[in-house]
């Protein structure tokens, strides 16, 4: 697997003007995640049929995956990732990018993005463990789908933000500066 290095820019600013925020984008970033979790917990009240609940939740998870990968990551934190498959040999090439123009992002939106991106797979892991303990393996399969989709987005954005050479260099510089101050 080849990985292209992402350019790491200082993308967070507390002073982004109100008109530059992405309220609707932030809403949908949280909405699809929350709706899938809500349906997992309370779906039985709407439909007693497991298949209907399964399909609705998987659709919500797919909407969330696509929205986070293609819209909210780019607008809220200035990051994006994708995978290309080489047609000749079938190898994968993962590409990670940071916003090239250096535009700043709203700190509140960035916190919302990262908090929900990190918490969502953790919540689905708890649900998966609960499904295993209660011997509900069909629900466990659904949780595995959710963990896979939300975990893939988390991994992709982690690689974009924290695994580039620039980010490692910034961390090393910070550590050296901190150690020299002590």
UniProtKB/TrEMBL annotation:
It comes from Lotharella globosa. GO terms for cellular component: Golgi membrane. Keywords: Membrane, Transmembrane, Transmembrane helix. One of its GO terms (biological process) is vesicle-mediated transport. InterPro entries: TVP23-like. It is a multi-pass membrane protein. Belongs to the TVP23 family. This is Golgi apparatus membrane protein TVP23 homolog.
